[in-house]
Amino acid sequence: MLGRPRKFDENGAREVAMQLFWAKGYEATSLSNLLAAMGISKSSFYQTFESKHTLFEQCLNQYRDILVSTMSEGLANAPTPMMFIKHALVDVANDTNDPLGRRGCLMMNTASEFSQRDSNIARCVEAGIQATKDIFLQAVKAAQADGDISSNTRADILADYLVTVVSGLKSQVKAGASRKQIINTAEFSVRTLQEMA
Amino acid sequence: MLGRPRKFDENGAREVAMQLFWAKGYEATSLSNLLAAMGISKSSFYQTFESKHTLFEQCLNQYRDILVSTMSEGLANAPTPMMFIKHALVDVANDTNDPLGRRGCLMMNTASEFSQRDSNIARCVEAGIQATKDIFLQAVKAAQADGDISSNTRADILADYLVTVVSGLKSQVKAGASRKQIINTAEFSVRTLQEMA
DNA sequence: GTAATATAGGACCAATTAGTCCAATTTACA
DNA sequence: TGTAAATTGGACTAATTGGTCCTATATTAC
C-alpha cells in the first residue's frame, strides 16, 4: 500500500451522512451541513465520495442493509413470528420520542422527495421495500403455520398490508400523531390479523 | 372600485400553484416554475401573493378545504357509510394511473418535507389530518349504527386506523406499488373492518 | 530520500435561488 | 382628463448551491 492512509473512518462518515439525510432529506442537507457533520474537508469529501448524489445512494443502500438485517434478526430472535409482527408495528410508537426527531423512514422519505424524478433512486427504493416485504412474507407464512394468523388470506397480500400499515404509521408520526395514537392503531392492526376469519 | 382591475384569476392561479406544489414539493418548485405555470409576471406574483411561502400556505389550506368537502360530499352521497369507507380506500388505486404523476397527498408530502422545521406548517398539516379523521369518525359511527362494523372497537381508534391505512396506501403509490397491490391491500383493509369480532 | 497518497483550506466558478425595485404601459372609473 | 391601480419586463441583490482546482503540508511504504 502506497501513500498516506486515510485518517477518518469512511464508513463512520457515511453513517453520519445517512443520519443527516434521514433527518433532513436530500435537498435540505447541504454540502456544508455534510462537511460539518462528517468532520472532513471538501477535498476529502470529493476524493472519497465522488459527489453528494453518489454518497446519498450509498447511504440509501446502507440504510436498506441495516433495516433488512435488523428485521431479519428480529424475526429470528422473536419468541414467535406473530410476536415479531406485533413488535414491528407497535415499536413505531417509539419514533414519537426519538431525540433525533420524527424522521420517519429514509426509504419512504426518499420515495416522497424524489423517486418521481430519478429512476435510479426509484429502483433503489422499490428494491428496499421489496426486501422488507419479503421478511414480512416469511413471518406471515410462519405465523399462518403456527395458526396465529388464518390462512384464508394469501400471505403476500398480508405482507403488502403490513408494509402499508407500517408506512402509514411512520407517516402519521411525521405528521404529528401522539404516541398513544400510534400504539392504538398498531395494536388494532395486529388484532385484525389475529381475528380475521 | 379604483384603478385597473386584476386581469388574471387569482383563485385559478392559486389552483395551478397548488397542483405544482402537490406534484413536486415546496423546495423543488422554483419561482420560475410557478410564474411559468401561473402565467403571470414576477411583479404580479409578489403584489398578489406576498411570497412563495405565503402562497404555499394558502395552497395547503385550499387543498385541505377541497379534500374535506370532497370527502363530506362522498359520505353524504354514498349508498351507505360503509360504501363510502370502502371507496375511500380502494379509490387510492386510481392514483397509480394519474397522468399528473404519483403525487400522493399534498398534506402528507408536506409533513414529510418540512413540518419538522416549520411549526406553522406543522399545525396546518395536523389540522388537515384531524379534519379528514373527523369525517372518517362520522362514517365509522354511522357504519357501526348500521351494523356494518362491529361496535367492539372504539370508533375513534377505527378512524385513526383508516387515516393510517390511507396514508400508507398513498405512500406505497409514491414508492411504486402496482394498481393491483393497492387494490388488494385496500380491499383487505375493508374486510378487516367488516369481519372484526 | 522518494514516490504516492491524504489532508486542510481557500480561491474560484457558473448557476440558481427568492426577492426588490423601477420604468413604462394599460385599464378602469369618476 | 386625471387618478388609481394592475400589468410586464428587466435590472439588480445577496446568498447559496454543488463542484473544481490549486497549494501546502502531512504521513506512510519502499
UniProtKB/TrEMBL annotation, chains A, B:
Q: Does the keyword Transcription regulation apply?
A: yes
Q: Which SUPFAM superfamilies match?
A: Homeodomain-like, Tetracyclin repressor-like, C-terminal domain
Q: Sorted alphabetically, which Gene3D superfamilies does this protein's record hold?
A: Homeodomain-like (1.10.10.60), Tetracycline Repressor, domain 2 (1.10.357.10)
Q: Name one Pfam family in it.
A: TetR_C_13
Keyword annotations for this protein, in alphabetical order, are: DNA-binding, Transcription, Transcription regulation
- Annotation: DNA-binding region: 30-49
Q: By its UniProt entry, which InterPro entries does this protein fall under?
A: Homeodomain-like_sf, HTH_TetR, Tet_transcr_reg_TetR-rel_C_sf, TetR_C
HTH tetR-type domain boundaries? 7-67
**Membrane as UniProt keyword:** no
Question: Per its record, what are the GO molecular function terms?
Answer: DNA binding
The protein's name in its UniProt record: HTH tetR-type domain-containing protein
